Amino acid sequence: MPENENPHFLFFSSLLGKKVVGADGAELGRLADLVIATGEPYPPVETLVFKARKQTWELPWSAVAEMNGTVRLKPDARPAPPPAAPVSDRIRLSEEILDRQIVDVGGAKLVRVNDLHFLVVKGALRVAHVDVGFRGLVRRLGWQRVVDGAVSLLRPGADYLVKETFLSWKLVQPIESAPGRVRIEVAQRVLATLHPADLAEIMEELDRHQREVLFRRLDVETAAEALEETSPEVVTELLETVPPEKAADILEEMAPDEAADALADLPHEQQQELLHAMEKPEAREVEELLEYPARSAGGLMTPDLVELRPEATVADALAEIRRRAEELPMVYEVFVSDPGGALKGLCTLKDLVAADPAVLLGKLMRETPATVLADAGLKEVARAATKYNLLSVPVVDAAGALMGMVTVDDILAEVVDAR
Amino acid sequence: MPAEAAATPAEGRSVRGLWQRTLVFLAVVGPGLITASVDNDAGGITTYSLAGSQFGPRLLWTLVPITVALIVVQEMSARMGVVTGKGLADLIRENFGVKVTFWISLALIVANLANTIAEFSGVAASLGIFSVPAWISVPATAVAVWFLVLKGNHRQVEKVFLVASLLYVAYPISAALARPDWKTFALATVTPHFEASTAYVAMLVGLVGTTIAPWMQFYLQSAVVEKGIKVEHYRYSRLDVIVGCIVTDLVAFSIVMACAATLFKAGVKVETADQAAMALAPLAGRYASWLFAFGLFNASFFAAAILPLATAYYVCEAFGWESGIDKKWGEAKQFYWLYAGIIAVGAAVVLVPNLPLLKIMLLSQVVNGVLLPFILVFMLLLINKEKLMGSWRNGPWFNAIAWTTTVVMIGLTAYLVATGARDLLAG
Questions:
Q1: A381, A372 Cβ separation under 8 angstroms
Q2: If you write DSSP's letter for every residue of B196-212 in order, what string do you get?
Q3: Which one of A136, A180, A383, B396 has the fewest CB atoms closer than 10 angstroms to its CB?
Q4: Quick check: B330 contacting A, CB < 8 Å?
């Protein structure tokens, strides 16, 4: 490629199917694909693939002399057959990206690739954007001139003409490529910063294989957060696809009640295997929760809460919340119980913040408006939360000892699912 | 047949193994049964009624090869869904590109719109027998369909559909009420018989065309994917498909039989399924007639609920537009416009007075017929791709059967398209 050209943009669709000719002008075949290596934010095309009859040939991009109506090769170009097995960190654009689904990590959704946009600079062809818009579709259909003309005649300022629906290559995550090989670093980092609920939605929309590929790329913490938001069937399916050690790590990271829900649907043997692989304390918590039906107070409750004695001060309580902030998903109240474990009362976060640090919890605490037993049904728990405006409903055993709490987010999720 | 998933040796020996397998089957069952049931929609019931009333038992034998062809085609759809985890529209887009996808989607929209119109006219006709006027029944059905899908989640909707497919039992009962001569019918089923008359050939082709329709392949494959059936459990899914196809054709069989034992014997000429239902009353009793009409309503409603939604899903899937009933209107515009548009147009067209409904049905048959060969060939190309299917590709024998089926189907639908287009243009 001549290196003195001005930088300009080029669509993949305008290259596909172009004639590839030798230095002498003899036709060798038609351009079928372009291959990039991942690693750079805007990776250059390294290899050109063309088809002659049924045969496929490859050439390094450096063998291209010029691109003008046809792709003309340099005299010393030696086409070679493509490698039999896929090579790692190589993406074949037509085969693996065009027409496929990718994750738009910027917009946190799944999109389908209609076209690719290259930047031609210094003889190199760099992938700059993916086109996911309607105009890209029209271009692929070969009707751009007609449709553009019609639209500009009817509505010259239409979004269709003005707004390009391009996504930066940096911010897309291909999910079709062979498992675990190709990833785009920037996109991978942004992926971990997506809201877990968005990530969960993307995973649910993907097909089974893609979902597994994406899931395996998540680190343990992100995976755990996303699974907490994902529907139980999908969670079960995903846990079966990773090695038991990783699954156990993910389960440890998850809130115990969510982890118990995830395990509940697995076959008994696998459930035991995973529980064994988990750290002892976490495994015990989860095992206890597994005893209860999923939609009862026992099944919904989490043992992760702040429980203190009446003799503790407000300062102690705040310090305790700070100390455990990492592991507690949410804190809205501190429970107060006697040495026997019987629940005496609770202090809301507001009470604690407003009170003098030296006040004893036993003085400050208010009476618990409602408690439920572990076998209480979802309805009963929901009713208690609604009636007394509770953010978490304490669960006690027959003797009145605190076992855990059901938080309002879990109640809501169950109620919405049951509609 | 394709490679079997290896069964674990311990499985299947104990009672517990049997129980477990039954549970897995029950969890996997649904897509095949539902797809096959929707297949007996308003158009299907009309065709079967006409076949029975015009030719008596003389077309019954064709249901046997039709069932085999249906199983062959549907099994491939289910297998592709389980193995690739993708819908057919997805696979076509990813393997054959934008242009092919565009034309297939366009044809699918037209065909399914015409089918939906046929379903709504089935609703109007069947409820007309119970004296409900069309201007009540059609809008009410449209609204009911809209809410069923919008307010229900996938599992609930599937349960409603499974119950609806049980209601097809109305037809075998009304066939029994018609007191057929069982021996004649049994014999006619196993004895191939051919007549060279144009009417006979046209009816035969119509039967094939109404039983194997393009949308079914899309629907079944997506339903299997949506259910998340695993490759290990594929054999249960296959059983679901086979049972579904056989049950469906038993229903078709009873419709033909009910009409053959009564209308054909008495020489009553009918042109539509609701006329057939009414004509049954004096010959087989009021209940047979009511059951027949109820069956028509059930089938039409059922299909009217599935077709618009399914169409909207495939088209959006293929083009990468957001889709799904859990999205807001603004998030998934194309999806909702397609879905609402097909229901609204389908219902509205039926209410237009003096509309040539027979022509619309003919048009739907022609478009389906044009589309089907492409779909079948694409399916065969896809299912033989090693990259997609691995060891689950068709074996040589299965390929021979599948290609033969496809070639025969293409021949028959070419005939259907040619005569249909001629009739459309002629008058």
A1: yes
A2: --HHHHHHHHHHHHHHS
A3: B396
A4: no
Please state the separation of Cα A229 from the chain's center in Å.
Answer: 11
The answer to whether B183 contacts chain A (CB < 8 Å) is no
Q: Which residues are paired to A394 by β-bridges?
A: A405
Sheet containing strand A115-121, strands side by side: A8-11, A115-121, A124-131, A166-168
**B123 in Cβ contact with B347 (< 8 Å):** no
The answer to whether A207 contacts B98, with C-beta atoms less than 8 Å apart, is no
For residue A20, give its domain range.
Answer: 1-100+113-158
What is the torsional sign of CA B124, B127, B131, B137?
A: negative
Pair A372, A249 in one domain: no
User: Backbone phi, then psi, for B45, in 5-degree steps?
Assistant: -65, -40
- Shared domain for A240 and A321, answered yes or no, is no
- Note whether B50 contacts A: Cβ–Cβ < 8 A: no
Side by side, the strands of the sheet bearing A402-407 are A372-373, A392-396, A402-407
- Asked whether the predicted pLDDT for residue B12 surpasses 70, the reply is no
For residue A190, is it within any domain? Answer: no
Q: Which two tokens mark B49?
A: 């009624």
B243-266 pLDDT per residue, tens? 888 988 888 888 888 888 877 777
CATH of residue B39's domain is 1.20.1740.10
Secondary structure (3-state) at B301: helix
pLDDT tens profile A211-262? 887 888 788 888 888 888 888 778 888 888 888 888 888 888 888 888 888 8
Contact between chains at A112 and B84 (C-beta distance less than 8 A): no
E strand or H helix that includes residue B163: helix B154-166
Q: What distance in Å separates residue B74's CA from the closest CA in chain A?
A: 20
Nearest CA in chain B to A97: B94
Per-residue pLDDT at A179? 42
pLDDT of residue B427: 59
Supply the Cα-derived Rg of chain A in whole angstroms. 29
Residue B3 has pLDDT above 50, yes or no: no
Instruction: Kindly give the interhelix angle for B63-84 and B31-39, rounded to the nearest 10 degrees.
Output: 140
CATH number, domain of A39, equals 2.30.30.240
Bridge partners for A124 per DSSP: A121
User: CB A192: neighbour CB atoms within 10 A?
Assistant: 16
Residues B252 and A309: their CA atoms lie apart, in Å, by: 74
DSSP H or E segment with residue B151: helix B134-151
Identify the DSSP state of B167. G
Rounded-to-integer distance, Cα B17 and Cα B7, Å: 11
Which parts of chain A have pLDDT scores under 50?
A: 178-182, 419
Whether residue B97 lies within 8 A of chain A, CB to CB, comes out as: yes
C-alpha span between A251 and A259 (Å, rounded): 5
List, as ranges, residues 219-238 from A with C-beta within 8 Å of B.
233-234, 237
Q: Are residues A27 and A147 in the same domain?
A: yes
Q: What are the angstrom distances between the C-alpha of A71 and each of A2, A26, A241? A: 12, 11, 44
Find which of B2-11, B88-97, B122-131, B181-190 is predicted with most confidence, using mean pLDDT: B88-97
In a domain, B236, yes or no: yes
- Please indicate if any CB of chain A lies within 8 Å of the CB of B363: no
Distance, CA of B39 to CA of B119 (rounded, Å): 11
Task: Note whether ipTM > 0.85 here.
Answer: no
State how far Cα B180 lies from the chain centre. Answer: 27
In the block, which residue shows the tokens 């009476």?
A367
Task: Give yes or no: residues A375 and A280 share one domain.
Answer: no
A208-211: which pairs have CB atoms within 8 A and are 24 or more residues apart?
A: A208/A237, A208/B85, A208/B225, A208/B228, A209/B84, A209/B85, A210/A101, A210/A175, A210/A176, A210/B85, A211/A237, A211/A238
